[in-house]
Amino acid sequence: RSEVLHKEVRSFLSRKLGLDWRVAFLRKVLVISLRMPFEEEIRMAGKRVVLVTASTRGIGRVMARRFAEEGAAIALNYLSNKSAADEACAEIQEISPGSKIFQGDVSAADEAERLIRDVVEDFGRLDILVNNAGPMLVKPLFDTTPEEWDRMIRSNLSSAFFCSRYALEPMRRQKSGHIINIGCLHAEIAPGGLPNSPAYGVAKIGVIAMTKMLARSEARYNIRVNAINPGLIETDDYAGYPKDELNTWRARVPLKKFGSPEDIASAVLFLTSDAASYITGAVLPVHGGLWIPDY
Questions:
Q1: How many CB atoms within 10 Å of residue 61?
Q2: Average pLDDT, consecutive stretches of 10 residues, N- to C-terminus, the chain (295 residues)
Q3: Which residues contact 157 (CB under 8 A, 6 or more apart)?
Q4: Catalytic residue among 78, 166, 200, 241
Q5: Is 241 a known active-site residue?
């Protein structure tokens, strides 16, 4: 009976594949064996819990979806737009059913503390924190008001400090964790011909400094801390700029194109994977060559 079954299987495979089934099988095994080691390192081991702040739109939403596709349970965070949060959560839950949404203004210390506490209480742990929250202000320093300055520092730098501070408590108990801070183009240079946003840039410079200091202090707890400095990433916000201005910006990029939220998400997934287990305190620019100095 077994030999008859084997013959039927071989016959079926040959008809479906249009070539000897042994050749097709060996070819598939070869492809998988060559591809698997690195992909398995990139894929997240087990059901990890990931909190991405400001994750119901733009880059944050794409990062949340990519983590969900890799098998993580996602804690989505939003500030005030409940309908957008519900829509994003429904999308993520189709991929990772255990994912949830959490409201919270991470620029306020008490709300950031509550957010981290609620996530840990609901999921039992917190493995990855992505500090993504932070609006941009395009305005020269001379025209920036003290209130606008404070808002940029609070929403970009203080939010990353608050969330990191309270996330370290469960991560230290676990003896493991990852923190990813999202910086910006202006954290390393002030390029001409691009949006002038000094208050935003100063806040992100602080984020990068905090990344490096945290990486050193938390390494003994097996907590890795890294940052991404995105370049010109095309999101819905770009719709508000004139086409000619966008073309001018694009022309300055050596690769002659804008980046996408997927580019940032891929970099974040790499830095939080086992493939990057020896990387901490790094600042990874994802900019299409825009940081390359002129010689």
A1: 23
A2: 55 53 48 45 66 95 97 96 95 96 97 98 97 90 95 97 98 98 79 74 95 98 97 79 83 88 97 97 92 66
A3: 203, 204, 206, 207, 210
A4: 200
A5: no
127, 203 contact by CB (below 8 A): no
What own/partner pairs with CB < 8 Å and gap ≥ 24 does 245-248 have? 248/193
What crossing angle do the helices spanning 109-123 and 159-174 adopt, rounded to 10°? 30
DSSP string covering the chain: -HHHHHHHHHHHHHHHHSS-HHHHHHHHHHHHHHHHHHHHHHSPPS--EEEESS-SSHHHHHHHHHHHHTT-EEEEEESS-HHHHHHHHHHHHHH-TT-EEEE--TTSHHHHHHHHHHHHHHHS---EEEE---------GGG--HHHHHHHIIIIIIHHHHHHHHHHHHHHHHT-EEEEEE--GGGT---TTS---HHHHHHHHHHHHHHHHHHHHHGGGTEEEEEEEE-SB--GGGGGS-HHHHHHHHHHSTTSS-B-HHHHHHHHHHHTSGGGTT--S-EEEESTTTTPPP-
- Give 52's strand partners: 76, 130
Q: Is the pTM of this model over 0.70?
A: yes
> What's the confidence (pLDDT) of residue 31?
41
Tokens 């700029």, residue located: 241
Q: CB–CB of 198/141 below 8 Å?
A: yes
